[in-house]
Specification:
The complex is a heterodimer. By secondary structure, chain A is α/β, with parallel strands linked by helices. Chain A contains five helices and five strands. In chain A, helix 2 packs parallel to helix 3.
């Protein structure tokens, strides 16, 4: 599942990940939507943007869905921030910098359940 | 913070200075008043003393001259009804035809033997108050205490001096001269002139405290109501808010009494001082007030300035974060779509390729408009914006801006309403198109996808008006006033853009002599109204 408040960015991820062979079970524009969809759609992987004003951010979402079994979370952000990376790691999620498509593809290949 | 601290210290210093000055002035004035009062009292004491001394010597010389007259030969007989004595007394009396009081003689036993102007002829043969005469009959002249007159109906003081026998050895009697205590007596008239102010009075009292002469006519001949007299004290006293000076007139056994209310006594000196003091205090309070107000205002301005700077700073920081986000997003989009397309070229359908490249294109366009906004803003702020002004039919410019925007956003409904007649304005056509494009972009961002955007051009004699109206949520009160400010963004819940578009619009419109305003549309949505001054159609119609 892919979540981003920017339509272009969301579109890009959906297109690229589909072409990479992933099945996109759902998309959302806000953190609140993302949490609700995760609970109903139970995706294997959640890719979520960090900055989605004015609502919940990617870290909030990662924390909220942490207890869902078998769900891996990737939070990506425009910001290089060591503290943010640590917080994301603490929430059990993977941090990625925005704009690095190949890095995302690699992480998703590794994350993909066998 | 440093400057407000300094201002606060300045206020405190100013207040301390003003208070210190006021205190200094206060103590100086009070001291001056005190010193002045003391000096004034000393002067008063000296005046009374001098008056008393003068009176004393006058009485002494009166005694002397009367004694000379009285002792001139022939010797007095001092026997009851003696004709020679009577004749001589009448001679004395005739010296002052206007006199209202007379003379009389007493023998060594105090029996009255002769007199002039006696009210009761039967007085001759009666005994005069022997006690009062004891000293005189012993040989010393005296002024007797105030008593009822024998030669007048008024109260009198009586000068008494001894008469001696032919050998000038033995006191054989005394001559008594009465002087009435009336307001118009020469002596009293003299004393009356000494009246001072409303409450100040000079009084001479005899040994019993009866008034011999006074600047207060009502007290003549009566006992003076002055408790201090009974104590026998002399000098300057200040009982119960009064100033009392008492000095003895030794030769007559009298006392000089000066009395005045202290307030009045000092008033002439202290009143102006206290008024001056009041002025100083008022001035000090005013000065302190002005200082505190001025500095307070400065302090408040400094705080406001600081708050404003902090606000600007916060806005600037947000702008940097916005711009970096706004830059990264289209760059990431552009790169991403291109990379996806390259990486998956073989497996992508024709439609997918087209979609990916057109998304890359839209990201590039976003980047372009962002760059333009930022560059325009810096141009505007450096006042380096140039305008290629010419007379144009605004209908054509608006139509072409709307058409371009329709091409870019075929998904949005944009209606355009133009007047039938040309709407000539003097402007830079590219800049006007930029304004309309910005307003359309803003309307697209601010309203839901399926709602229409309406552009209307109307013209009057004076102006041409372009209205861009959307059906979004409209503007709040604060947005109405701030929407054209720099970095103020978004009417949507997820603000996008730099917050520069409308700012640039206003700058461009105003630079071309027009105005722009934002309004709430009827029903729902916002209206942005651009007004430009209308000009005459050019002589040679353009493009004809």
């Amino acid at each position: 599942m892919v979540v981003d408040n920017d339509e272009d960015a969301l579109d890009l991820l959906v297109m690229d990940l589909t072409l990479e062979g992933h099945e996109i079970v759902g998309t959302a524009y806000t953190g609140e939507e993302a949490i609700a969809l995760c609970e109903s759609l139970r995706p294997d992987i959640l890719v979520v943007d960090y900055r989605m004003p004015p609502g919940l951010n990617g870290l909030d979402v990662a924390r909220a869905v942490r207890e869902l079994p078998g769900l891996r979370v990737v939070v990506y952000s425009n910001y290089h921030d060591v503290r943010l990376r640590d917080q994301i790691a603490k929430a059990g999620a993977t941090y990625l910098q925005k704009g690095q498509l190949s890095a995302l593809r690699r992480v998703l290949r590794e994350e993909q359940p066998a | 913070m440093k400057s407000t601290g300094r201002d606060r210290a300045l206020i405190a210093t100013a207040v301390v200075l003003v208070v210190a000055t006021a205190t200094l002035v206060l103590t100086t004035v009070l001291k001056a008043a005190n010193d002045g009062t003391k000096a004034l009292q000393q002067l008063q004491l000296e005046q009374v003393q001098q008056l008393t001394r003068g009176m004393d010597s006058r009485i002494a010389s009166t005694f002397q001259s009367l004694a000379g007259i009285a002792s001139a030969p022939p010797a007095w007989n001092v026997t009851k009804g003696d004709a020679a004595d009577k004749k001589r007394l009448e001679q004395f009396q005739s010296l002052n035809p206007k006199a209202r009081t007379g003379f009389f003689l007493v023998d060594a036993k105090g029996t009255i033997t002769n007199g002039t102007l006696l009210r009761d002829p039967a007085s001759v043969g009666m005994t005069y108050d022997a006690k009062a005469l004891a000293g005189v009959l012993a040989g010393a002249p005296a002024i007797l205490p105030v008593s009822d007159g024998l030669t007048t109906s008024l109260r009198v003081v009586t000068i008494a001096f001894p008469l001696k026998d032919g050998a000038q050895q033995k006191v054989i009697g005394a001559m008594l001269i009465e002087s009435d205590l009336s307001v118009d007596s020469a002596f009293n008239a003299e004393v009356a002139q000494l009246k001072r102010g409303r409450t100040g009075e000079f009084t001479f009292v005899d040994e019993n405290g009866f008034v011999v002469a006074s600047s207060n006519a009502a007290s003549l001949g009566k006992a003076l109501d002055e408790p201090l007299l009974a104590t026998g004290r002399t000098g300057l006293h200040k009982p119960n808010g009064r100033l009392v000076v008492i000095e003895p007139v030794a030769s007559a056994g009298w006392r000089t009494v000066f009395r005045q209310d202290i307030d009045e006594f000092q008033g002439a000196l202290t009143d102006p001082l206290y008024s001056a003091l009041a002025y100083v205090v008022v001035a000090a309070v005013l000065a302190a007030g002005v200082v505190v107000l001025t500095l307070g205002r400065r302090l408040r301005r400094a705080r406001e300035e600081q708050r404003r700077l902090e606000e600007i700073n916060a806005v600037r920081e947000e702008f940097i974060s916005i711009v970096s986000h706004e830059l990264r997003t289209p760059v990431a989009g552009m790169l991403g779509f291109l990379q996806t397309t390259l990486d998956h070229w073989e497996v992508m359908t024709e439609g997918e390729r087209q979609r990916a490249i057109s998304r890359a294109m839209s990201s590039a366009r976003r980047l372009h408009s962002l760059t333009r906004d930022v560059l325009d803003t810096s141009s505007i702020e450096a006042e380096g914006m140039t305008y290629a002004m010419s007379d144009v039919d605004l209908r054509e410019e608006i139509a072409s801006a709307v058409a371009a925007e329709r091409d870019l956003r075929p998904d949005r409904i944009m209606s355009l309403e133009l007047p039938d007649d040309p709407a000539w304005v003097h402007c830079d056509p590219d800049r006007v198109q930029q304004v309309i494009t910005n307003l359309l972009d803003n309307a697209i961002k601010s309203s839901p996808p399926l709602t229409p955007i309406e552009v209307t051009v109307t013209s009057s004699d004076e102006t041409v008006e372009v209205v861009v109206r959307d059906h979004g949520p409209g503007l709040s009160d604060s947005e109405l006033t701030r929407v054209f400010e720099k970095f103020v963004r978004g009417r949507t819940s997820t603000p996008t853009g730099t917050g520069l578009g409308l700012y640039i619009c206003r700058q461009l419109v105003e630079a071309q002599g027009g105005t722009i305003r934002a309004e709430r549309a009827e029903d729902r949505g916002a209206r942005f109204v651009v007004t430009l001054p209308r000009v005459q159609a050019p002589a040679e119609p353009v493009g004809a």
